[in-house]
Amino acid sequence: MEEKLMRKLGSGSLDFDAYFSEKAKAMKASEIRELLKLVESGDVISLAGGLPAPETFPVETIRKITAEVLTSHADKALQYGTTKGFTPLRLALAEWMKNRYAIPTSKVDIMIVAGSQQALDLIGRVFINPGDVVVVEGPTYLAALNAFKYYDPRFISIPMDDEGMKVELLEEKLEQLRREGKKVKFVYTVSTFQNPAGVTMSLERRKRLVELADEYDFLIVEDNPYSELRYSGEPIPPIKHFDDQGRVLYLGTFSKILAPGFRLGWITGSPHFIRKIEIAKQAVDLCANTFGQVIAWKYVEEGYLDEHIEEIVEFYRPRRDAMLEALEEYMPEGVRWTRPDGGMFIWVTLPEGIDTKLMAEKAIRKGVAYVPGEAFFAHREVKNTMRLNFTYVPEETIREGVKRLAQVIEDEMKALRG
Ligand code: PMP
Ligand code: G9A
Question: How much is the pLDDT for 203?
């Protein structure tokens, strides 16, 4: 759309690109955001974007709370707020995190951000010097890579298995770096129901990661949008729970447990770190959406959040099950996938030789979209994987989408065999 408009208007005599900073020239569009535009426009089943189901949005509750807020709190809700966020919301979240995760709130501070995506950018600003080593999972959340990339880190990617990041490989890497006289600045992990792989870091690995952070002196950024969406298995404490030293910055968000349209998240960490991040945020947007913060405060405080989590878990479980069943039923031999206990995503690995980025166009022509796996790898080294989302469309549509996808994959495998 933008490209079309740009072509139509022509470039005239102005060399627009020449004005961009070097950093802007290096920016690349997010594959997910671009796919969303494509999918919006056609008769395509989207297993691509990590979107909540709109049917789950608690519209009536929001309507009720909004009326209350406008009646009793309009002076605060419609005014600028402090950069750190609306204090009653910050306190309510601290209490909620203490009850839910046993995170000792006396040692941490909380700041409200415009979605956890903003927290990722602010962390980049505050912690990354060009060339600093940032460790990520392979694969990892692609928009975190894009956020950090702006600050020119050197990424090291640690492979995963069904228990999350292979922490023993991280240890080897840390040792190697130490021999070279180098250090890691921070490890970024989506610890529970990972985006994109759907896997969860085991308890042992969580504890070991914190030990390693102490031993090798690095920070941990724990991005945790999905842990409330658990459909099976036992809950597991966040890494932040094991953090005695204040090395873990924990990111939470309302996007999956209220609605992403609020653009509200939070960052929890040592007051020293939060203070600097607050100063960085002052220059970015002054404060997060105040109206939304006051609504979110009521939503947490009056117990709607916990009720809603229970409801969406029941709502999404059959969708997860439907996708797992459809994969079992339709996928050809040689295709593997993860079996997540929660979250929004299943990670699919195809036989070597298939490039899912090249295949994506064919899939869209057949009426199904996924996110090709390549962009989730810091060094784009893996070509034969894809991410499927199971929360956005209903069970029957999931089945049909997986069926169409399986057909495209089968054709591709035949072509590969010649
Ligand atoms: N981190 C991860 C791992 C995500 O999956 C997402 C959203 N898909 C975000 C951060 C950003 O979420 P938001 O800004 O809506 O809180
Ligand atoms: O970019 C978005 O719309 C948020 C979703 C992220 C994802 O699909 O991982």
Answer: 98
Q: Give the distance (Å) from ligand 2 centre to CA of residue 88.
A: 29
Domains in the chain, ordered, with CATH?
20-57+307-417 (3.90.1150.10), 59-305 (3.40.640.10)
| Number of residues written out for the chain | 418
DSSP string, 164-204: EE-HHHHHHHHHHHHHTT--EEEEEE--SS-TTT-----HH
Q: Is the CB of 50 under 6 A from ligand 1?
A: yes
Tell me which ligand sits closest to the C-alpha of residue 36.
2
In eight-state DSSP terms, residue 373 is G
- What percentage of residues in the chain have a pLDDT greater than 90? 87
From atom 9 of ligand 2, which residue's Cα is the shortest distance away? Answer: 50
Nearest ligand to the C-alpha of residue 260? 1
CA distances from 416 to 52, 355, 363 (A): 35, 11, 16
- Which residue's C-alpha comes closest to atom 5 of ligand 1? 195
In terms of DSSP H, where are the helices of 108-247?
116-127, 142-149, 167-179, 203-216
Question: Which ligand places an atom closest to the C-alpha of 225?
Answer: 1
Mean pLDDT value across the chain: 94
139 in contact with ligand 1, CB cutoff 6 A: no
CB-based pocket (< 6 A), ligand 2: 32-33, 36, 49-50, 195
Please write the tens of the pLDDT for every residue from 327-382.
999 999 999 999 999 999 999 999 999 999 999 989 999 999 999 999 999 998 89
Report whether 191 contacts 225 (CB < 8 A).
no
- Please state which of the ranges 5-14, 198-207, 352-361 shows the lowest mean pLDDT: 5-14
- Nearest ligand 1 atom to alpha carbon 119: 14
Ligand 1: does its nearest atom lie under 6 Å from the Cβ of 254? no
Mark residue 207 as left, alpha or beta (left: phi above 0; alpha: psi -120 to 50; beta: remaining): alpha
